[in-house]
Amino acid sequence: MPGRTILVVDDNPENLIVLGELLLGQHKVRTANSGERALFLARQRPLPDLILLDVMMPVMSGYEVLAQLRADPLTRDIPVIFVTALNAAEDEQRGIELGAVDYVTKPLHPAIVLARVNTHLELKAARDVLRRDNAKLELEIARRMHENQVVQDVTIHALARLAEMRDEETGRHIEHTQSTVRHLARLARSHPRFAAELNEHTIALISKSAPLHDIGKVGIPDQILRKPGKLDAAEWEIMKTHAQLGADALRHAVDDTHERAEFLDFAIEIARSHHERWDGSGYPDGLAGEAIPLAARLMAIADVFDALISRRVYKAPMPFGVTQALMAEQRGRHFDPDLLDIFIGAYDTFCDLARRHTEDPAAAADATG
Known about the structure:
Elements: E1 5-9, H1 13-24, E2 28-32, H2 35-42, E3 50-54, H3 62-71, E4 80-84, H4 89-98, E5 102-105, H5 110-166, H6 172-188, H7 200-209, H8 222-225, H9 233-240, H10 242-257, H11 262-273, H12 294-309, H13 320-329, H14 337-345, H15 347-357, H16 361-367
Parallel strand pairs: 1-2, 1-3, 3-4, 4-5
Helix pairs in contact: 2-3, 6-7, 6-12, 6-15, 7-11, 10-11, 11-12, 12-13
């Protein structure tokens, strides 16, 4: 195994000479006559592939050197063979417990020393290959997972934009409601009512799913969806079906693939229930209170906030102050009271988010009034 570097540590010059001559025919050899020098050489590149370490040395014993080697991330994986005149079982046990891979005793037998050195060099080489292969595998897995996430995100946004294009809303609605849901969920996680349900993982899934909340609008006829005015009672009943249409479409997609995607569970909840109201007067199921999924309760606040401050063909944008007052009136009626309190408590932040996502400077200016 040519080219391997071995560090030999011994305070006795004769022992350094003996081991150096024994190993130099096959390996590169560094020598140190003290623990302090050994620690210095052990950190020099290229790092040693193996260390032969004397136990009984003045100032710093081999045990102390090994302890420091194992404490340093740079040197902790270098295999160490103790070389010593000690032969008590407890001395050998102590060295093994500290992390030595083997033990050879003086007087040294060249054939035994070479056999053990080569064995541990081969083991280290195998570990190094395995470590490199694992690192490559982890990088490949990370790359593929990233690609899958990109495909998911592109697909989600493509579907969401398809729905919004049909009812003449703009792409900003997707980004704005998504960022509002994400920020509101992060604030809500510190509330005792929501802490058990909201962590970084679930918040990421909920915000990923948020753009699909109105996907069911693709099933609403154009004459209703794009009507430039108030819907009559019959038209409104048809419009309300978009919540169930969206949830059913997502559920069928999951069933068709026979695979469960965790974020789609939240997407189905949001699509179906984001028009439910805390007092039970919403649709499509008339759910009330905590029977409404938390993801849908978060989405309800984000969706209404965006709708009120945005320009539509049938209305002008409402000022932030008016919007806040209108939403506050719906505490415990339309909205989860605790979630609305959190939202109102950080209202200026949510207004700033809205300004960042606006595509209508005139509307943004109007909305600040």
